[in-house]
Leucyl aminopeptidase family protein
Amino acid sequence: MTDLSSLLQPDRGQPAHAIHLVDKETFDSWLGIQPQRHRTAVAAQKLRPSINASAILPGERPDEWSVVTVVADAKALTPWCLAKCAETLPEGQYRVEGQEPGPAMLGWLTGQYRFERYRKDEGKTGPRILLTGEPARIEETVRLAQATATVRDLVNTPAGDLGPADLETRIKALSIEHGATLFVTAGEDLAKGYPMIQAVGQAAGEGREPRLIELEWGDAAHPRIAIVGKGVCFDTGGLNIKPGSGMKLMKKDMGGAAHAIALADLIMAAKLPVRLHLLVPAVENSVSSDSFRPGDVLRTRKGLTVENTNTDAEGRLILGDALTRAGEATPELIVDFATLTGAARVALGPDLPATFVNDDTLAEALLRAADAQSDPLWRMPLWDGYDEMLKSDIADLVNAPEGGFAGAVTAALFLRRFVPENTPWAHLDVFAWRPGAKPGRPKGGDAYGLRAAYAMLKERYPV
């Protein structure tokens, strides 16, 4: 993983290159009071007041150069307004002239993330270090950036190197780091206790067997919360096999698990006063003679029966058993993350996680945190009128209704069947992938809703 911990440092007056922040409104007035050498440099570099544009400004001596960069609002910084600088400036130390970087520290860190597991270290530049007069903010900002890097690393790793056993290894390391307890259910115990997880993963070969991975941490006297993440390490679609184009990115189908693992790490590192229960059903949805079939009726841990109408709607199946297990411990809150439906992406695109919440107070807290963290969520309806779409002629419900209407909603309604009544629950249908680069957010695996969920939990369970 990219180590981001040294890229923020307390400002003790050490030498550093200044970063001057301007916006469209202040650009001309700033330029008008600059010395001639700065105006010449700006003209030579053809700097215009467009967001993320920047220029190097010469100093009186060669090592005294500074930087000017254009942001949306120089008085209201965002997490991403310095990210382009972090990606492109020469290595060295920097400080924002005349103000603290505040929220922009996050993008400074995430802009220097690199996934280099499979590439030679060629042309790598040194670190860009940002100084801040708010040292108390450094530790938390680094945690958030490292959590984002965790999601990116896990999602970016090809399925050949990240199967169910590898997810187990990652969570085991987390349990050791934080003094948590690890439980893994596999084999006959999985088949008896979690039949939907077993059914989805049973076609995978030796070494890729399905399992339910659970971690518990914290004082048993504290409020119990459950974090659940969909861990489909690769999704062929099963016998309802995907075309090649649809299978191309299916290494990211464990993106929900990546979010859940990163969130659990944040919770434990911050020592939030909760009893944490992390649950990751880890499977590979493969094709073999042992594949579960369209038309099969599946038993569930809850006791319901599910007519499997589409083997490519497998994520909700494994989550159903995991949510049932989470509810058995009587948590006061359940949050799940899943790369669940293409319908959510059609409706909202990659940047907005479709967010389903069965409790208005919880929904308001999540959306408030999302706004404060610049980590957007979009609430979608758990529309009771569509619950009838889940009816089956031969079982208690189907996993994938025909017709394709409201696909993200019906998937969430399916999950709701396995959440204890009156337990506050939030379901985030995330994409976990950034199809195009933005400052601080490279193309590839990425975290969506992670910071919002963590901020909500910090507000709900203050240290």
